[in-house]
Amino acid sequence: MLDFDKSGGLIPAVAQDADTGEVLMLAWMNREAFEETVRTGRAVYFSRSRNRLWRKGEESGHVQQVRGIFIDCDADTVLLKVKQVGGAACHEGYPSCFFRRLQGDELVVTAERIFDPGTVYKR
Question: pTM above the 0.70 mark?
């Protein structure tokens, strides 16, 4: 179904709000993450920095309930249409990871922060 071998075992996974169409984030999936996502109906990714499965919301509670799974024409990218529980997909506390817009040569924050990551994550 998916070609995990094409790019060394990981494929890009785009999370999109199922209701609004807003792109929430881009992450990576290995075969195990994909299979758990399909089985549980909750988004699971592969964290390259931690080198392990990352169950979205495992620390913050801001899980993604999967409403639809779409595979691209080359079978090497996944699009998840999700319901973002808690309103924030981004680990920095924003609704979307794409909360900065390039204007001229500056990045401008275009969204309201939903939570303070310093109070949510144990670091």
Answer: yes
